[in-house]
Amino acid sequence: MNLEFYNNRDQTIRHWARSPLPFIGQKKDFLNEFIDKVVWTIPAGSLVVDLFGGSGLLSHCVKYYRPELRVICNDLDNFRERLQKIPETNIVRRIFFKRFGRRTNNDAYEKLTGADADFIHETLNRFPGYDWITLSNMVSGCSERIRAKRKTFTNKVKVFDYRCDGYLVGVVATLVNLSTISKASASFGLSTHRMRSEKKDTERI
How many Cα atoms sit within 13 Å of 121 on the Cβ side? Predict the structure, then answer.
């Protein structure tokens, strides 16, 4: 099991109320309740392990409010890699923004076809290190699995660059698969079925 820090430990941790990158089920809506009922009740000297880390928001929250605690985030979604791709993702965002600007209608997103669609394909091929999940939130259809066949995209380009400074500072990332977690949890009486159900319930919040 490899353990690595998410971010430069020399950085100053800063408050984040939501994930710095798009992430479904990032738990931002019950963050205040989590802080009140969980974070402040963790015993001093504890090792906190976020088994289903997701975007790392809860892990970051624990480390921000309780910096003395050791926090490990199980990065099942490889969010660490997405954070590392922010610089190249921002390059693509700037190129798209210069070309397309913001959406032109408050009620509907602008459709990008023809030469604009060709431009999108050319740009993404020039900068393959982008995070496609983030890009697909700016230009719908940028999924790395289907974009080669796309002839129409949707303009949702953001005005500002993405950033993650001060996020997950001091939090350790690891990757342990669900099977290993399930086996290790047996001694605590937590079944695989129950664990999966709890994960799904959490993701729906």
Answer: 15
